[in-house]
Design a protein that fits this description.
Two copies of one chain form a homodimer. With 150 residues, chain A is an alpha+beta fold. The first copy, chain A, folds into two domains: 1-88, Orthogonal Bundle (Arc Repressor Mutant, subunit A); 89-150, Dna Ligase, domain 1, CATH 3.30.1490.190. Chain A has helices at 5-14, 21-32, 40-48, 56-68, 110-113, 135-148, and strands at residues 73-75, 83-85, 92-96, 102-105, 122-133. In chain A, the strands form two sheets. Chain A has a three-stranded mixed sheet. In chain A, strand 3 (92-96) and strand 4 (102-105) form a beta hairpin. In chain A, helix 1 packs across helix 2 and helix 3 packs across helix 4 (56-68). Chain A binds a DNA duplex (30 and 30 nucleotides) through residues 18, 20, 22-23, 39-41, 53-58, 60-61, 80-82.
Chain lengths: 150, 150
DNA sequence: CTTCATATTTGTAATCATTTTAAATATGTA
DNA sequence: TACATATTTAAAATGATTACAAATATGAAG
């Protein structure tokens, strides 16, 4: 787990991205929030506390730069806004329709491998996700049902 | 393959959707265009020729109704606009970054089955897609390379 | 065939995520 | 210190989608 400023700086330099304060802070945020798959808005709102002058545009530009260099992945799963993922290792996601959380899912199969595609297309990206009701929400629903039947 | 007005009407009635002219035409379009995964715009532009008064809103409303009743699937793959699919059988997609075409992909594995998810979540939807360069575009690229080396 | 209630369609305006643009600011170098 | 370049910023533009309200169609009751 890489969380200190020094190695974040090294990561950016390695990718040929000038390590400005904003970029370091955005990368730091991403590296520390690997479970919530944040939106631009979420990142922006959080960084406002440290950098009161930061703009949405900077967050957008920075994430697009990170994306190009493979520092983050972009995931379109909610249908409304882009989610970003610091974990660029091959994995899939689960979106809970009730609480809205996005969780990582590990699946190994011809789909997640991608390469075995027989159609002659050159596969560059593999995206997989599920939608449904997450474990925790299922528990909540059960609890509510119990309450209402008292 | 269901393409005549009569059975389209039956499909709508079966789902409790009143078979208006617009809805029949939209369903007809969907049933006849199973390979291009159209946008709302594409459907709208085509139907304008038959129904000069049709509105975008009607196409949106109708597709949302179809979606709710499971007559079509919605796929978010380009990141910019929703694509609709008349084929609601479990399958995945390939988006060509060069020509923009979306092709059907058949894959059978734990991911496409969905059910085998070990995390305790209730899976209601399975979405999978690849991005890359399609077979035909790869050929084009090769041909261009040959030309430029003449 | 009229009247009325309801559903559908339509056009316009609003919304929301994202991109574009241009000015302001910061950075690095001569 | 001065200048060229990159970055950040705010504001405006864009584009897909939804909300809204008026117009139109539909279907049943008298």
């Amino acid at each position: 787990m890489i969380t200190n400023m020094k190695s974040l700086k090294a990561i950016l330099e390695e990718k040929g991205i000038k390590p400005t304060y904003q970029r370091l802070k955005i990368l730091e945020y991403m590296s520390r929030n690997t479970v919530n798959h944040p939106t631009v808005e979420m990142i922006y709102e959080k960084l406002l506390k440290d950098i009161p002058t930061i703009s949405m545009t900077t967050v957008y530009n920075t994430l697009n730069a990170f994306l190009e260099k493979g520092l983050v992945d972009a995931i379109t799963i909610t249908g409304t806004e882009m989610r970003y993922d610091f974990n660029t290792d091959s994995h899939h996601h689960f979106l809970c329709k009730r609480c809205g959380r996005i969780m990582d899912i590990e699946v190994t199969c011809p789909f997640s491998e991608g390469k075995k595609l027989q159609y002659g297309h050159r596969v560059e990206e593999v995206h997989g996700y599920f939608k449904g009701i997450c474990k925790d929400c299922l528990k909540d629903v059960r609890n509510s049902a119990e309450e209402s039947s008292l």
